[in-house]
Every structure is written in structure tokens, then in C-alpha cells.
Amino acid sequence: MHVKVAPLRRTESSVRQVEIIWQNLTYCVTRGRSVAEMLGKSSGQSRVKTILNGISGSLRSGQMMALMGPSGAGKSSLLECISGKRTVGVSGDIKMIGKDRLKIGFVEQFDHHLEHLTVNESLVFASRLRNADRRFVNHQNTAQTLIKKLGLDGCANTLCIRLSGGQRKRLSIALELVSKVDVLILDEPTTGLDSSATTLTINAVLALTKQRKPIATIATIHQPSARIFQLFDRVYILSNTGVCVFDGPPQELPQTLSLVGLSVPNYYNPADFIIEVASGEYAKQSIHLLSHYNKESNKTRFDDTYADGDSYTTVLNAILAEKSRKSMPHFKQMTILVRRVFKITYRDPDIVIIRLFTVFPMAFIIGLIFGSSVGQHSGCPPTKLMLWKLDVNELFDKFQEDRYGLQENLALMFLVMMMCMFASYTSLVLSFPLEMNVVLKEYTNGYYSVLAYYVSKLFTDLPFCIITSISMTTIVYFMTGQLFDTYERLFYVNMINLLVCMTGQSVVILPLFIFAGFFRKLSLMPSYLVPISYVSFFRYSLTATLIAIFGFDRCPYENRLAELDIDTTNLTRPQWLKLMSRMYEFQSFMGDGDNSDESSEEQTGIGTTDGRRDPETNLMLMFGGKNAVGNNSERSLILTQFEIADTDEAFWWEIRLLIFFVSVMYVLIYLVLNWKLSRKR
Fold it and tell me: What is the CATH architecture of 59-87+98-300?
């Protein structure tokens, strides 16, 4: 069933007051099928449940209506039908007289605010976002006016986290009134408040309803006191069967009850008594008679008063006409949201402490654990002069120490990368769930678009991301003795970790780091798992980091420095060099065969005139790997093991891939966020 939509009809622009009428309004829900019903077995029960059963009523400017009834009577459903939030399963007429555009303010039962903004700041930002179509609006004056009207003077500069329950509720009402609404809907505004706070809240709303430019107000309320009950202009009572048993001023309730033989006992709260009647405690016949009397009186009232069909429009069309107005540009929305998020972020001690003051201790702890020598291991093969200078035992000790050092340095780089990512990821986990209810409310009320909110969050988080990643990387880089021959090398490592940190601003698929090639070489993985590594940004960040640390001509630079300390006077080839060379040749022959040696010799292009390589070349192959000679004669062992090319083109290719996957991840997260908010809306 769907809402009956009448054609949009334009009314006189001079008429400012509005009246909403609902006639024969029915709302039904359909429950899902049980397992037995799916198997073809009938349960004998109807799957359709009627929540509102053919009710009628009206609400006009300058009136404050109380919507009452037992739990499950359909009070919240009626509010959502009137406000246009619920259309599926609704039938009947919901129309409006007085204007062709309708702006509704909906105050939910639970109050959700940005806790690190003050009351005044919350109202000013709300006015900037909601009054985009109104020129020359003084947002500060708008905020101050609402603060005075709702009695928030004493807490105007108080953070929302420190407000009492009544103050939070009045702030929620003020936030909806900044845009000059025509109808104010309150869903249980007195829940959780004491009698004093309840009286203060109801009186404040009543004063707003009766102001110079009156508004129509409807509020659901549970068991009000007799004093509060008499403050409302009209009372609308729903029974547990979804019908209306009373619609009129609270002073007329005793007279209406007397028509069905009921009377309010002495010293008894009329509100409590009518709820008992609506719950069926005084026989269902009473509910039937009261409902019948209400329908007859409404029929007469609507037929006499609203006979002119040309003077109204449907509520849905009026709401859509209001929403069709030109909205604020996305850039302006983002500008306001960035200012707001910056204020919230820098006032939140949890985010500042966790993200900043934990980075420096962790960086120093990591630096102390790994020591100042781990970065000195480069994995570069020895040169000819180094082979002649070193003793065979010293050479093997250096080789073993270098291999262990490379493993530790690789683990260090991967650890720093993960720390940079989790520093940003922690902020997302802490802040976003707390803001989700506020974002949903503001997005539903048209404050801003999902894109504006998402981009503003990323933009305001970027400074923290830059500070944490650069601080962590730079401190660890120097404390662990990494090579600092040029500023470019440090810049490249910081750039990679910054991109990794930016991935933490989105929802990261953590299992992807298994496919980075750190725990298991990609060439040794099962072939059916290798394709997963192509969507893992950890793979590209690790590859780029290895090139930045061990590439860019690091081996030629370190070998030149090492040869400067070697005294070449009376330096000759040691005898053990030929013996080790023959052993390597024999091992290669037994392991790879003659063809392998020939192909290796052809690839290297290095050998003696009789077709055999010289001993120094064999030892360079032995300590540096088969790809350590030839065109890459001075190449780090770790780049050879990971099969990484030591070129500028290879490095920037990995950077481009990393940027691409970070961008794709941002787009996917935006689409998921937009889908979830639109679904809840």
C-alpha cells in the first residue's frame, strides 16, 4: 500500500500558518515468512499486521498536541507518517493547508550531540549548514535568540558532554528550530527527565508554539503529570488496536468519557486514566464506542471545514518542494564541516593523546630495541679490493652478520609501516562510531551531503596523519642507523609511510598484509593465492620501501667509501680466493649443470680469456647471488631475494600503484558509507 498523493496545488503566498490533516490513515506491516511457511505449511495467521487503523486528525500552527497511548499503539509510526519518513504500507490522505512548501523539524527520542562543541557553537554551525538558502542571516544572533527562548543562557558556553538531560533535550529542539520550521515533531521529549526538567522543556516548547510566527507542534509523551497534561492545546489518544479514542482539548476529556459511562476517579490523574482505558483495562467495548464517537465528530468537522479541495496540497509534495530548493554547494559545506571537525578533534583529549603522545614513545622504544647498527647492513656484495683485503673467516662472519641484519632491518621497516597505519586507524575506530548517530540525524535533516562529510573528515585527519607518520619514520630512521646519503632517500621512505597512514583513514582489510611478501615470498606462495597479492597495497608499499632503503645506488656508494679505507700498497690476491672459487664452481656444476654455468657466464659477460670466470667474480656470485653481477654488479642481496628491480622506473611504478589503490579504497568506503546512510534514512 502506498500514500495517496494528490496533485500539488499552489496557495496564497501571504498565508503563513499551516494545518496538516490526515484522514482514514492506515499503516500496515508485513512480517517475514517463517521456515515452516517457506516449506509450504500454513501457520493460520495473517502476515499483515495493522498498526494504525483508519484514523483521522489535524494539527495547526499555534497548537501544541500531545500524542499519547500505550506502548505499541503506533505513536512513533504516526509521527513518521506525518513527517513523510514512512511511506511503504501507508494508505489514506495526509494533506496540508496554508503553504505549498513544508519544513519539518524532527526531534528524536534520544539526544545525540557532538560532545566537544559548546551549545552556542552547535547552534551556529547548524545555522550555517541549514540556512544556506537564506541571505544576510546573522547566525550568531539566531543562536543567541534560541538560547534565550529555550532557557539555555546558563550553559551557552558549556560543552555538550557536560549538559544535563533537560539541557540536552532543549538543545536538540533548538537545533531543529534554527531553520524556521513550520512543524516541530518531538518523539518522547520528556523521557529520562525529572518533573522540573519536564515542566521547563514543555513550557519552552509551548512558548515557541505561541510566538509571533507560530509553529505546529506535536509530541509523544508517556504518563504526563496532571499539570503537564493541562498545558497541551489538544490531546490525541491512540488505543492498543491502532484507533483514536480521543482527539480534543484535555479539558473536554471527562465529558467525552462520560458518553461511554466512564468517569475519572477523584484525585486520579486524567492522563493515567485515559491510558488505562486505551489499553483495554475497562473493556474493549469502551474503546469501540470512543473510536466510533471520534470518527463521527471528525467526519462532520472535516466535511464542514475542509470542503474546498483546491486549497490543499499533500504533505509529501510539500516536503519534496522544500527539498528541491537549491542546496549549498559541496565546497561550502566542506568548508564549514572542516572548521567544525577541527574544533572537535583538537578538543578531544583521547584522539590527541593516542595519536600524538603515543607515537614518540613507541618510536623511541622501537629504536632502542633494534639498536643503532641494524640499518648499516646493506647486503651489498664485496668488491675485488674487499676480497683481497679481508681474511676468509672475516669475510664469512661479515656475510652471516649481514644476512641476519638484513632480516632484522626488513622486519623493522614492516613494523614501522604497520605502526603508521594503525596510528590513523585507531582514530577512525574511536571517533567515527561516536559521531554516527549525529551524522545520520544531520544527513536525514539535510544539513550536508555524504561526500561533504567524508571529504571533511579525511582532510581534517590529514595533518595528524602527516605528523604521526613523519615523526615515527624519522625517529626510527636515525635511531637505527639507516643510510642518510641524500635527503631524497629519507623523503621517499616518509612518503611511502604517509600513503600507508592514509589507508588507515579508511576501513583497511587487514588480512591483506599477509600477501605483502614479507612473511612468505610471493614466488613461493601457491599459484591460486598469488592473485590476491595484486590487490594488497602492503605489497606495493613494501616493495617501494625496499627500493628506497637498499636501492638508488646504495651499494656503489658504500663500496666506494669502503675502498677509500683500503691500503692498496703491496695488496695481492690471497691464496684462499682460488680455492673458494673452485669450490663454488664445483657446487654450481653439481647443482645446476654445465648449461647453467654457461648461461650464467653469458648473462654476466664476465670471465677470463679461457672461458672461465676469475675467482673474484665467483665470490661475488657466491655472496651476492646470481643477479649481483653483470648489469647489476653492485646490487643489494635483499633486492635479489625479493626479485625487485633497482631502478627509478620500478620505484615510481610501485608508488603509482600504491596511490591508485589508496584512491580506490577511499571511493569504496565512500560508496559503502553513502549506501548505509541512505538505507537508514
Answer: 3-Layer(aba) Sandwich (3.40)
